[in-house]
Amino acid sequence: MTPRLFLLAVAGLVPVMLVPTWSTASIVAGVIVLAAVLDFFLVPRIHGLELQRTPGPMVRLGDGTHCTLTLINGTNRRLRLHVRDAWAPSAGAVATRSHHVLEPGESAEVTTELEPTRRGALPGDLVTVRGRSVLGLIHRQKSIDVPASVRVLPPFVSRRELPSKTQKLRELEGRSAVMIRGMGTEFDSLRDYVDGDDVRSIDWRASARAQDLVVKTWRPEKDRRVVIVIDSSRFAARRCGEGTVFDAALEASLLLTALATGAGDRVDVIVADARVRAAASSHRAHDPVHDLSVALTPVHPELYDANWESIAAAVLQTSRQQALVVLVTQLDEATVAEDILPVLPTLTAHHRVVVAGVDDPALSALAAQRGDVDDVYTAAAAEAEMLATASLRTRLRGLGVASVHALPEKLPGALADLYIRLKVTGGL
Asked: Where does the DUF58 domain lie (predicted)?
């Protein structure tokens, strides 16, 4: 029923008040009921209405997208429709209601603007269609499931640091120490043959043209393997700053992937907790950062403990040659001592290992409080936590494992700086 039917009922009170008899009331009530029943049968059935959703392109979190809803009148009657294109709250749908009058065979398109507030595949909810007749006393309503979803990638806010980090790496590239034996496999130039040169390096075609012996010179290979392991266990679900520890780990991984692939390194990413949740590689990828973003979009932390033995096995299976292995996890003293340290010898025997952790900005704020006794005890607990983290990093350094511990917004840059330092000093 609609407000028009209510207004018609109110208008029917006028003759009843003028002629207050039971017959007048019966006639007025009969007219209202007859009009409502007649209007109900005049409303066209909307079963012949065809609906289709066309989602817009995938976007990064913070950018807007859209979805187009197409309505096709497959009936032989005119349809007067009120449409609500509902979405999940996290999709941030704007102006979901619209009105349409469709002739038989006519179609219409409704574009719903979306402003997502979380990453992942955000599904569309039911499309509710309400039809009415000319009188508009009674509506027919139906909710239809029209499957569609928009894919929202991680924000990658740290990409603004990529140009400066890339420029710094290029400036220092000429001073990079090369930790590899042999003459390499990358062709560099031609030069005249001198005594002591390897005869296998002689370019016979160039020697024939120059009428003298000419040899090829080679550059050592500079591309390396980088394996990034992102911990998606229950520790990664902890709130840290404006997001979670897992969100900060994604940002750091995206920036390191962009920087390393730009330098010619091959990057493999493993997301794991009790099992391997996702894996991506820059090998043969046209856009490694985009492919990594797509692979990590549907992954969220789960309330499981990480199985570091299976994670170490996955790393060794991913890369058998020496690589830089970056473990992005929580620098928790109990977790590192009981779970990570036992598997470190297995990894360090084949790879260079780096442990990266997210610093909770709330700890510094709690450590600075000096209001009352409770604040002092809270500050002492925060200081103890920070000292435990510093002691853990010292212990890792003694085992030959570098570590990075920074605030969520600074972790990507700090990890990129460590990669550049290792690249320049020949630590990879």
From this structure: 190-388
